[in-house]
Design goal:
Blueprint (H helix, E strand, L loop, with lengths): L3 H16 L4 H7 E9 L10 E2 L1 H12 L8 E9 L2 E11 L5 E13 L2 E9 L1 H8 L3 H4 L9
Parallel strand pairs: 1-6
Antiparallel strand pairs: 1-2, 3-4, 4-5, 5-6
Helix pairs in contact: 1-2, 2-3
Amino acid sequence: MSSSEDSKRAALRYFEAVNNNGDEQAILASLHPDFVFRCMACAPAALQVECNREQIAKVPKAMSAGLKKPFHWTVVRLIAEGDEVALEALGDCEKLNGERYDNRYHFAIKVKDGLVIELREYSCTYSSSRAWLDSKEVASTGVIAPSA
């Protein structure tokens, strides 16, 4: 079992890599080989995704391709107990078409061997679906299929 402080540092390494222009190598270095991401959406079905570390590492750059500035999370709160981390974050950015994407996130994170092994995302799926379901860039990652 990891100490709570070690688990916080491991979780923050992932978020810092995403915030560093979606540095794929740094993202991969922060994730355990058996990593799994789950979007805990109830609806729409297109957001009920599960993916591996290679897939999730491509998402920040793909999202940023449709934004005026690279995607960035602001970490608001971070709590850990052993190898479990709860992280609250804000995402606020502007798409190339001028629309604002503003969402609130909670991540339930599990750490193993100093690396993130599981990331469960809870967010407003209304905002996410409006922003990303029609994104060809995000669809190219294979994580979210574009809407018909």
